[in-house]
Structures
1.
Amino acid sequence: MMADPGLAALLDPKSIAVVGASDDPTKIGGRLLRFLADYGFTGEVLPVNPTRDTVAGLPALRSAEHLPDGVDLAVVVTAAGAAREAVQACARRGVRACVVLSSGFGELDAEGERAQRELVATARAHGMRLLGPNCQGVANLASGAVTSFSSTFTNFGLRDGPVAIVSQSGAVAGMLAALQHQHATGLRYWVATGNEADVTVAELVDAVLDDPGVRVVQAYCEHLADVPRLVAAAAKARRLGKAVLMVKAGATEAGARAAGSHTGALAQPEAVVEAFLRRHGVVRARSLTELSGLSRVFETCAPARGNRVGIVSNSGGLGVMMADAALAEGLELAELTGGTREALRAVLPPFAAVGNPVDVTGQIVQQPHLLTRVLPALAADPWVDIVLVALGIVGPTYDIDAITDDIAALHAEAAARGVLVAAVSVGGRPELAERLAARGVPTFDDDSACVRAVARFAEHSAWLRRTPPPAAPAVAAPLPPGTGLLSEHASKELMVSWGLPVVSGRLVASPAAAAAVDLPYPLVVKLCSPAAAHKTELGAVRLGLTDARAVARAAAEVLAAGRTAGVEPIEGVRVERMVRGGVEVSVGATWDPVFGPTVLVGSGGVHVEVLRDFRLLIPPLDRAAVVDAVRSCAIHPLLTGARGAEPLDVDALVDLVLRFGERFAATGGALSEIDLNPVFVLSDGVVVADALVRVADPAREEP
Amino acid sequence: MMADPGLAALLDPKSIAVVGASDDPTKIGGRLLRFLADYGFTGEVLPVNPTRDTVAGLPALRSAEHLPDGVDLAVVVTAAGAAREAVQACARRGVRACVVLSSGFGELDAEGERAQRELVATARAHGMRLLGPNCQGVANLASGAVTSFSSTFTNFGLRDGPVAIVSQSGAVAGMLAALQHQHATGLRYWVATGNEADVTVAELVDAVLDDPGVRVVQAYCEHLADVPRLVAAAAKARRLGKAVLMVKAGATEAGARAAGSHTGALAQPEAVVEAFLRRHGVVRARSLTELSGLSRVFETCAPARGNRVGIVSNSGGLGVMMADAALAEGLELAELTGGTREALRAVLPPFAAVGNPVDVTGQIVQQPHLLTRVLPALAADPWVDIVLVALGIVGPTYDIDAITDDIAALHAEAAARGVLVAAVSVGGRPELAERLAARGVPTFDDDSACVRAVARFAEHSAWLRRTPPPAAPAVAAPLPPGTGLLSEHASKELMVSWGLPVVSGRLVASPAAAAAVDLPYPLVVKLCSPAAAHKTELGAVRLGLTDARAVARAAAEVLAAGRTAGVEPIEGVRVERMVRGGVEVSVGATWDPVFGPTVLVGSGGVHVEVLRDFRLLIPPLDRAAVVDAVRSCAIHPLLTGARGAEPLDVDALVDLVLRFGERFAATGGALSEIDLNPVFVLSDGVVVADALVRVADPAREEP
């Protein structure tokens, strides 16, 4: 089933050797044997123990050297020193995959790091895959192949289900499994990668998606390694209609530092991580509880056709709070049709609210099957894409079976039409939530958590509806010679060669030549030098020049200002048309050493980095993603005609970003940074008014 | 104990009449008697039933007319029609407080609204307080006086505790009680106010705070009514060291509309509500779960001395996630002293992280009292104000008693020093959380919820440390004559009379007079008319005039532009100095019909409403609140020297806002709106460059 036979052996072993096996279940080597028995593993188990003939009733081998040929999986639980020998022996015996639970390697010191590199070299030399070291192992809940010492497996009788948990941290993997168990759903795979000397989270995410039994991957990373494999995995998930959910910790500088202190990894720029995950449809959660809640929706629901919510509650107040939360999370409140309202009025008591949210009131106590009539009416409304059923305090006189039946029936029926149904029970009897969950309805005990999870799901559904961008359009992106910063004129010429709408201008050498430039007034004069990035601060810009004499004087002044400030080399003076009206935005790009090209769109002006009103995008870009990015900026209302102003040409801005992003990606890293700021968005078109290009130094950065 | 004897009788009745009493516990009148017995009410219970001699074994009265004198509380459970007679009878018999559970009043139609007004008139005529109608009643868990039909009281054996729940919605009050019960703490009072014909949430919040047994009030409102009483209650809470926590639903327009549909109340502007609650130290939650979590911290913790967090976890990953969350919520991560690090290094295994977060690793299994040594070291660090203990997966080999003892001991000891201790158990054994809660440690099952609650608590502690502003400083605020908009010149003259730093300028009638104005160049010329609020759009502004001839020409042009546009009346031309450099902000004020004066500070420019980069403040202002508001704006880094620019005079901006806010409040509503935009913040001082004042129309708005 899986492309890599080593990973297949790791995830679904038929034979397991335990190196360091013990009779004592309080020792790790004993606990593993106990887990294999308790979870019903029926494959071959081969205990290895240097002093015993049998362990836990099974014949034991004295050393890994005596393993039969081609064991699928060996688990090494000995101390670090012995682990090195064991790994060598396993590799020589043709073991397909080896889990090294032992610590004392890269996480400890430089010597451990060296030993760890040796383990990997040994494994690779023999084509054996290696999980860990310093990891909590792997489990397959379908076969019972539990080769982990996590106390998660002791605390809970975990069961098979549609989720794979793949985590750098064993403790986090354990918490996720516990949350999964609390919500009465199961998991197929559980893997904790530890030091990731060989097998990575990205590879495992990719591999577990091949299992038809897996619908959702819950991933935990502190550092995104193996980016191309993660991209491939995300594409596979999209193709197969599965979801990858992730907590990427270390989002803040302090968090990243803390993560670094126990994994040694470097901080990754948060805005780029965010853009990367969004680009590839990896759904991000901020806490394990949120991840678990998201998973409940993704495990049980078909993609939603839209983001318009209809809310039904037995508490007016709960309905209002959910409406507030829905709007705050980017969902819309459905405007019910007249027909729906009439249908609701016919079945609800006269004092009930038939708007949205619908308040069925305590009447549900008298009419246990009130939802039978209310829910289908709401879910049949063409404007309702998502039905949220919120129940507060379900007393002893509520007929829980009837309510469960009604909600579960709607959930099953509506899915085929792309209508999502989720439930909330706040402070109610626990049986209600349990029965709903057992019937496959995603159920929450907190209204805001429900709304948040559903909002992320609806965003993901929208992403699935979008046509994926072509892999990488073959475009030509002319490049300048040299390295380092280009002057404004050279930068703009490059952008012109890329087909971008740049303000017209000429490079001239003298005030007289400036005066002779044949462009319509008013004009702008700027000193032109690769060493004058911040011209305004230098006094090297003159705006609004309305005749030749003013242009000549301005040219002389900016040249003098440049010389006074010691600017060198001075290429001359750029004389260009002055752009007026519209709204200033900025468009930029940088080449990230890990993630490659990133494109920025945001508000313009000198303070874009300070105000942080921007969004990053990762090429190849699709139009919908760019539109979405522009919409997410605080300045967006200015572009669409705030304060009664005429709406501006947002389409042209989107075209510019698409074209710019394509070409920047096509440079393959030859340019390290471009800053187009400001770009004026006008009522008809856009125009780049300033540009700054930095060419990468090939000696420092691999293009 | 309470000022209002009617409210005292409502909240702590010694005698209770049940009008509509029944033997049948499935009926409301029977359920009430059952609750009174079950919850151990030992006062007098007087069933009223028109056809029975005894009810539930108690002698019954035929009618409320036969009640003895001065019964504390009567509960009316009959249909609406009979309820009106019952209320009249109760009022005549000198009942102190009456709870009308019956519906069919203001929530139904205009006739119900009339009937409701009658109830109130009857009650007021006899000095009787009235809760409801259409409410779920009131309960005192100390005395067992449960006069509510909420199934909350059936589902759970609620117990006495330090919380009062006061809610417009009965269902919400029920959910809050259930959450309180789930977290093993109790409540003293439970009140649902329903239609609030007489007794309001604000009054009840004020009243329950008088009870020494109440530490925290959990309030739910969809509309803030009775604002002065709420202000008084908040002041009382501050004085007594108690907290008022609130969910104010209807924060979005759609939410407010939904709330209005079942309470009839109007939407309240969210930014003003937010400012009001912040001003008065009312801690806001966005969901009931969040409210309940906040309550756990406020119930059990003394105010924190600061916001620097030290995190201890048995999972490195959990520690990293909490560090991320702490920074996102405005907390700081404490930088541990060298001494603390050394102390930690001495007790932790070599591979454990001794930075912050501290990772004690699974070593706690081998050393159950590891926290005994780690926690005091962390809590003794002078840089740690808050200790968060986060435990993920606590396996069967963990010594839960030892861990609980260690955390609870620290919680008790550290409180005296203003150090807050809270705990998180994610996916762990439920006993751990239960035992910690039983020992008074605020405990969460979600790391991000814990951090959020602790962050709000730390903010409240900071608010408590601030000196409250003087009630209302006695300042003179000169007022202009007339109504409606003032011209820019008149607006600026008013601001000068308030002592604000306004850019120097003169009002002149002609181009010649403009040319003669004796102010240093460059100058600005603007058309001056109360009808020309948007001068730039009119072409009625000229900037950067450097000599008398340019000034004269500009004056002629703007006058012509005004006449062409039909502007009338034209007061003349304002000639003023041109402000250069610095950063533009805006300062404004409006007089809200419910909340009174509100003051705005935010980014400047024409698009302040679009970009929404502002914060509202409610006078009287204190310096710390203004500083905090300025800091919360996205432009703040520009004021403090971003991009290596020199830092600007933020103190002068704060002074301006304080002076402006004082004077605006002193107008008593005579001015409806002021907009100072832009105000330039310079390296030395601030200057108001544009001003617009609107005088209230006394015919339309009561000053």
Note: Residues 209 and 236 of chain B are 7 Å apart (CA to CA).
2.
Amino acid sequence: MCGIIGTILSTRNAAEKIMLGLFAEQHRGQESCGMAVSDGKSLQLRKEMGLVKEVFPQAILDTLPGFAGVGHVRYPTRGKNCESNSQPHLIKLLSGPSFAVASNGDIVNYKSRRKLLEDDNVFFESDNDGELLAKFIAYYIVRRNNSPEIAIAELIRNVRGAFSTVFLTRDQLYAFRDPWGIRPVSFGRINGKGWVVASESCSLDILGAKSQREIEPGEIVIFESYNKCKTIRYTDFGEAVEPQSRRHCIFELIYFARPDSYEFGEYVWNVQKQIGSSLAKDDKEINPDLVISIPDSSNFMALGYADFKKIGFDIGLLRNHYVGRTFLKPEQRIRDEAVRQKFNPLKGYFKGKKIVVVDDSIVRGTTVRKIVRAIKKTGAKEIHLRIGSPPVKFPCYYGIDTPTREELVANQKNLEELREFIGANSLKYLSMENLKSCVKHPENFCQACFNGDYILEPEAGFSKCNK
Amino acid sequence: MCGIIGTILSTRNAAEKIMLGLFAEQHRGQESCGMAVSDGKSLQLRKEMGLVKEVFPQAILDTLPGFAGVGHVRYPTRGKNCESNSQPHLIKLLSGPSFAVASNGDIVNYKSRRKLLEDDNVFFESDNDGELLAKFIAYYIVRRNNSPEIAIAELIRNVRGAFSTVFLTRDQLYAFRDPWGIRPVSFGRINGKGWVVASESCSLDILGAKSQREIEPGEIVIFESYNKCKTIRYTDFGEAVEPQSRRHCIFELIYFARPDSYEFGEYVWNVQKQIGSSLAKDDKEINPDLVISIPDSSNFMALGYADFKKIGFDIGLLRNHYVGRTFLKPEQRIRDEAVRQKFNPLKGYFKGKKIVVVDDSIVRGTTVRKIVRAIKKTGAKEIHLRIGSPPVKFPCYYGIDTPTREELVANQKNLEELREFIGANSLKYLSMENLKSCVKHPENFCQACFNGDYILEPEAGFSKCNK
Amino acid sequence: MCGIIGTILSTRNAAEKIMLGLFAEQHRGQESCGMAVSDGKSLQLRKEMGLVKEVFPQAILDTLPGFAGVGHVRYPTRGKNCESNSQPHLIKLLSGPSFAVASNGDIVNYKSRRKLLEDDNVFFESDNDGELLAKFIAYYIVRRNNSPEIAIAELIRNVRGAFSTVFLTRDQLYAFRDPWGIRPVSFGRINGKGWVVASESCSLDILGAKSQREIEPGEIVIFESYNKCKTIRYTDFGEAVEPQSRRHCIFELIYFARPDSYEFGEYVWNVQKQIGSSLAKDDKEINPDLVISIPDSSNFMALGYADFKKIGFDIGLLRNHYVGRTFLKPEQRIRDEAVRQKFNPLKGYFKGKKIVVVDDSIVRGTTVRKIVRAIKKTGAKEIHLRIGSPPVKFPCYYGIDTPTREELVANQKNLEELREFIGANSLKYLSMENLKSCVKHPENFCQACFNGDYILEPEAGFSKCNK
Amino acid sequence: MCGIIGTILSTRNAAEKIMLGLFAEQHRGQESCGMAVSDGKSLQLRKEMGLVKEVFPQAILDTLPGFAGVGHVRYPTRGKNCESNSQPHLIKLLSGPSFAVASNGDIVNYKSRRKLLEDDNVFFESDNDGELLAKFIAYYIVRRNNSPEIAIAELIRNVRGAFSTVFLTRDQLYAFRDPWGIRPVSFGRINGKGWVVASESCSLDILGAKSQREIEPGEIVIFESYNKCKTIRYTDFGEAVEPQSRRHCIFELIYFARPDSYEFGEYVWNVQKQIGSSLAKDDKEINPDLVISIPDSSNFMALGYADFKKIGFDIGLLRNHYVGRTFLKPEQRIRDEAVRQKFNPLKGYFKGKKIVVVDDSIVRGTTVRKIVRAIKKTGAKEIHLRIGSPPVKFPCYYGIDTPTREELVANQKNLEELREFIGANSLKYLSMENLKSCVKHPENFCQACFNGDYILEPEAGFSKCNK
């Protein structure tokens, strides 16, 4: 998973704004971050492993003057092959034009699109989707002497998958999105000062920008200057069969997005509360003494659950938020992520109590198992685990870093086996039906990770590593 | 403020345990950290600026073999004079014995005690209380050929102030505490493996240690080996007028300690909930739509308030927990601490609502003011601010980093002026009376920051900087 | 200026060999370094600002397993535009093949060649010659389905300028050189273990490789495995007018190469000694008491001068070799390079003496001026400055980092003015005639920096910054 | 071994001067460095592992304003026990006075002196001689209410061993030296701006200071302000039997000092040349074709040898001066110090030649052995090794980091065995007699490492590690 930012301003401090915007999106990617900035004459790029506040201290920002720019944060990846794949990607044409791209989402026909380009001499340095998008656009600009907007439209017609993307030239900023609107992206206005595009609206908030709206699926917004922008659709320049429905990623609302963001026409916190209520509604047989979350990801679900039950939400696990440098050896990382270091159950809290623990989802099931055991040890009488999503049974091809089908515990154990593995007194998932009732337009959402209904099948040879 | 750790084990991995224990106490001090470890022959010291996980990666821990040790985390200080004052402090005697000390708390007769030692040729490298304690003990061991326990008893008789301290020799670990028990410290047992002493019980939890109890005020616990310990009192070796009452720091329970810690015979979370209930009980005229905290410090107070009102606690502010390196330039620090970077109010949450915001205390009032304004901007109808403590009017001489009397806003504005400054529709503090009702033995607590009733007046010339 | 390394081995420790080889070539570039390594399946790249021993500690080498690789060190550049231009450059084809290129030398038709590629959709990330070479080769492989050797031959036919280059695929290593042989490159054999290609033979020495010979101008050597190699010429695959003569860079022998290297059929130390003798031969009127060098660059010239005069060489200036990190602020760099920090004249050495100071060349004249003044201050009676090369009057277009024509002091002052500026009692340059007598085949050398006779005129718009 | 600096100025940039002075003394210690600076009100200390230019970049110097200060560089030590022993040492008295000490040299009655202090309650943090000196002085100032000069005089009367020391108070700088003058230290004047004290005169040169003279053995120089200084002797304040002769360390002139320094009344380069001549004088039977040094330590000895033989000095080995960070793992360090990485014999230079190699001394014999072999491999006919000092048979107790008696190869092999071990055709040492002829006052020198004649026997229990 990744986060993106773009900005175009009346002032030359784009780098500082991008840094702050990326800081607000740090939860979308903690491995590496980068930005490309334009001062009107040329583009400068800087990207590095590390957290935003580490990679971009003031002294570095000072070396990146510019009125416009794009930025990116990137999630920890697993494989060695992915190591040099950070964004943005930069292209400089001899004749002057320069481009930079930052994108969030996976391309499912990555290989065939790259092959098209490679067949026409476009070479690649990495396996990164962002590089594909950058070169695709450059190719259509250079080959057909197209304007950037036509090149982008061509890209949207050709490239299939999830992409919420910002594209920077020396004097303009573009933002566009795949026709299904899989990943979030919206834009806002800093009063009299300029535009900001961001994966999540919490980034607009930190910059004091007034959110305008999401970039529409298939839309291309052209920010011509700090106070001018226009919008077109990828279908404006050629035939294309537009998708009949949107396919927003439901998992963004369940887990990934920050609860204070507004995404896909929904307040994230509100959807999560609805999920909690919905879980409670189906839980009539249980009268818990306490309802707790696993902080912070299921806080609002637990709040919703407790609200419905009218018994009051409780905080029963303390989470340690201190982290150090990100460059740890693998063994250390494992140890660092040990549940005991991160979560501590309150003493004297659970004794003799019947507890509902709400979690957002189960992927491998190992963390929640350790937490349930830790709570049990403090004297809880019963632990009832409620999951704010249906079982995750299918990998995501559009940008969420889920493991293979085999590693998903819901494919390995039935409900009773899983309950026993975790050690809970009962275990219930949110039903697909109920999930739908928690969002305004369920038909607009991709739920492939739950039901395997992929709107876009990946090509043969698709590998999750070229994200 | 600071946090301490001590351990003595059957195995040689004391450094790793100390690192983990300090990690759990990181909230007590984020400026510097250090540890001294004994392998039975000599003591090794390492201390540095930075967070625990940065200063003590595995590669460094590997260079610190030992079965016993003491550790320390230290709070950001303000003045230049304090910069080289990190702990532990180490003393090596030519004849073999070596000592290390880590302590939490301020000494109010620091100057006169140091003068006594200086008059007898003991020299100092820093202005740190920990160095005073280390040298005081060494002085009594060497001068009078005393045992460490007698030296420690002498220290407790002589030095006045707050000190929860661990003292390491080449083969034993000691833990002791001032006769008023101002700062917390407890100890626990890792089954069959050894002892752990820690400022807070959450440190014992992370180490899998079973908490035994607090070190008593005036008590000296001697951990002779991983499975033997004995206890004495400072009055065992000489006359001394013991204080008639304890003076635990009430502010630990209100703000400083982690809610999952058990301190002063109280579950911290529980006291904070009681405070919340107590605030609600006196708030009959208000029927709020929402009750929120300022995360995470007033979470449990808000929970208590909401519980009493039976209206359900809510999370209305999102907090960004990502932090980078700690070595920031002053201007950056200020900017980093900007409220907007740290807290974001949920959109669509407060619109038209009557909200109770619970905070733990008001020191300068600037942060809560910005938060109240930010919530107002999202459309809240009314904001009622409730403070989980009486007005902070007096500086702390025993280790809390409060500003001078003049800088405390409660000394500058009356309640109505302060309400207006903050921009809340109403403002109420917890009364002294109600605060007392929230702990089992109110007579055991120091409340000097609220009432100016200092059990130990600082000497003339006492400076808060030698902490 | 830059240095390159390539290796193909029977073992998987190519990274360590490349690191050592680069270490021996550190004098050719101290700004950044990098390497690309193949394990037979894929190529891994790592490049960073800093010295070789800093960028490639053992822990990093351990993450770069591979049996073959290429490496690069790069000289400090001045302009901001050059900052992200480090080498090697990597290209990965979807169908499997991957390439990496490291090159030394400047391309004078860089712009038109890049335009050719750009016109056919090949995009660039940097202004670096190495990227041009990498993409040119990839283009000819992919477009015409050519073998790497034919693509390289095509490159040599098309690209004009200086290039001593290594090219890595997943299983083979190639080394080639422009038809004029402007920059050095030779190869050697590690007995029974593999091949090494290096800018200078001192790199072969450090690796225990037995030097075989130079790569010939226009030659392509294909290292098929650790014990097989074959050679072709770029003319084997198509018509081409081969240059009638070589144009080795004479400045390599005068200044750039390490004296222990064997380059262009000459022992560098030996040429420098010949130069010294030649200077002395024309200096009959002078009977110096002392002959000194400016360490370490003119040591052998001074030795040659002293030998001829039969008066014994002397060391009169001490040089401080300690350097710290390379990331210094500009102002510091200037200060660091202050002559007084680097050179100290011996006290009591020059008093009343008539001294010949031999330097290798004069570019701006400011350093030698400070040194002459410092020696004067110690009491020298006369200082006669002898320069081991003709006046540098023309910029180099083939890779040496000389300033513009205007900044070359030899274009600003006549001999007498320059002598006075420097403060020497006399000043003599080596004559062009004499320079020729110091190498075996003077007709094989480019001396454009002295006589402006450029074999390859740069294109309009050629900028020294795309090096 | 270590180097020291002290300065007192009319301006507030003492830190920058100390940094530069330490940079010139970097050869005396590369492990750690530090400085203490006074702004007239208080002393600030900063010390860290690393090279001077790394530890003290401009940004750090800017945080150390002050008009006076002392600095220190420290040599790599071997044992774990020595790790936290860097200098300067700081003492702050409650009543105001503060002191800092930096010293070069070992104290042979360290233990008994420390015991005296410890018996009177003075405690130690390290095993460092500098801390002993700092506390000794503080003790005499505080205990007897003495002036610093009397305390220093007392110290010189009591402490035996080598110490060239600078002592800083809040407003004055003191420099003093043991009565035998074992280690060098001199002082100079920056015209109208202040004083500088330094281990070596090359430090004065880099600061533009005019050298005044050495601090005399037993002398205490008090720099009262930037333009006032006075001098006393330790015997001025009490009886003391002054040593009848000096005992300057002869090894400083042979190996340790920079050749451009003036030490012990001798130009270091000149003594080394004399040594070379002396070796040649006794070498009548040999007519070498070449005379080379092992750069850079025996350059001047080889020059002297060649001069005498009138055959011209040659440079036959190239030395690689690039070094990276100093924090290397032990194994790497070993590898880094591999002879092949550091020295490369010129190719085509030695073929068929009879060579004299001059080295300054033999300690373990392993490095010279590898060099001799490497030269042999290049085709040398004969290699005659000449050593510019007598056999090193005895450890140094006064500050040179020689190994134990058993590790000194001259105690393990006789001359013929050693010659064979090294692989030279002949091997000759400088005789004691000849060594004496190379300095003006041989009776003033300690030659204990050659003849075991220790002026000061170390106490029982003396360990070389408390340096």
Note: The two ends of chain C are 8 Å apart (CA to CA).
